[in-house]
């Protein structure tokens, strides 16, 4: 944990930024959930948030989807057009919280940084 700056976490995953490394872009956010790690810019993270919201608003669910955790009938496009995540309702809500919480913390840090500079 010495090499990262934690941003946000929930039981589903975590988001952080790398402190210093020649391999990683320290401005990007590392989003880790399930067995997946995504290194995203702020714009990509925002796009991912919109994709999650679109899935929540436009994916009809059968009565079993909301109760069956093994039913992964919801498809969320990642910021990379070649990658789509299959999720259940519980995971979809958790990834939305993870991404929205991360965006909130980044926006708050930017806002506080602007206030401190004045």
Give a verbal description of the structure.
- The strands form two sheets. The protein has a four-stranded antiparallel β-sheet with strand order 1-2-3-4. A two-stranded antiparallel sheet has the order 5-6.
- With 118 residues, it is an alpha+beta fold.
- A hairpin with a 2-residue loop joins strand 1 (4-10) and strand 2 (13-18).
- It has two helices and six strands, in the order E-E-E-E-H-E-E-H.
- It is 39% helix and 26% strand.
- The model has no long low-confidence stretch (mean pLDDT 88).
Summed over residues and divided by their number, the pLDDT gives a mean of 88
N-to-C SSE string, H for helix and E for strand: EEEEHEEH
> How much of the sequence is in beta strands?
25-35%
- The largest sheet has its strands arranged as 1-2-3-4
pLDDT < 50 runs, ≥5 residues? none
Helix content: 25-40%
Tell me the major beta sheet: 4 strands, antiparallel
Number of strands: 6
Cα radius of gyration in angstroms? 16 Å
First-residue to last-residue Cα separation = 32 Å
Count of spatially separate domains = 1
């Amino acid at each position: 944990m010495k090499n990262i700056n934690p941003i946000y976490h929930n039981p589903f995953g975590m988001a952080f930024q790398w402190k210093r490394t020649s391999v990683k872009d320290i401005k990007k956010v590392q989003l880790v959930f399930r067995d997946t790690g995504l290194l995203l810019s702020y714009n990509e993270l925002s796009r991912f948030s919109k994709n999650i919201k679109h899935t929540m608003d436009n994916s009809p669910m059968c009565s079993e989807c909301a109760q069956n955790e093994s039913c992964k009938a919801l498809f969320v496009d990642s910021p990379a057009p070649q990658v789509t995540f299959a999720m259940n309702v519980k995971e979809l809500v958790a990834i939305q919280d993870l991404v929205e919480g991360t965006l909130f913390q980044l926006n708050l840090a930017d806002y506080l940084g602007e206030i401190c500079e004045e």
